[in-house]
Backbone:
């Protein structure tokens, strides 16, 4: 009889699971906007519709080397998320940057 995924996971050592999870989070953190959109199961047309823009505008947003924070925030919200900004300083202090819409 075939084993379920949950049964197979139980056989993997916790340290292996932790390493795999850390690697997955690292991969996700390095995703481009278009990769993030695709991972959310959306195409450019769907995002454009949610933002009330034309599809070529989404292509431009995704290919820009630099984007306005307000544009990025709207894009992330169209994907169903929320953009959060944090400033980290060498002394260990972290400050949450409040939205400025």
Residues:
């Amino acid at each position: 009889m075939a084993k379920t995924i949950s049964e197979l996971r139980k056989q993997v050592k916790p340290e292996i699971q932790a390493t795999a999870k850390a690697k997955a989070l690292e991969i996700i953190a390095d995703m481009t906007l278009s990769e993030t959109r695709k991972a959310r199961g959306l195409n450019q047309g769907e995002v454009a519709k949610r933002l009330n823009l034309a599809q070529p505008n989404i292509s431009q947003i995704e290919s820009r080397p630099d984007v306005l924070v307000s544009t990025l925030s709207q894009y992330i919200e169209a994907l169903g998320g929320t953009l959060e900004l944090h400033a980290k300083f060498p002394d260990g202090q972290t400050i949450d940057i409040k939205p400025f819409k």
Q: What stands out?
A: Residues 14-29 form the longest helix (16 residues). The CA atoms of residues 39 and 59 lie 16 Å apart. The mean pLDDT is 88.
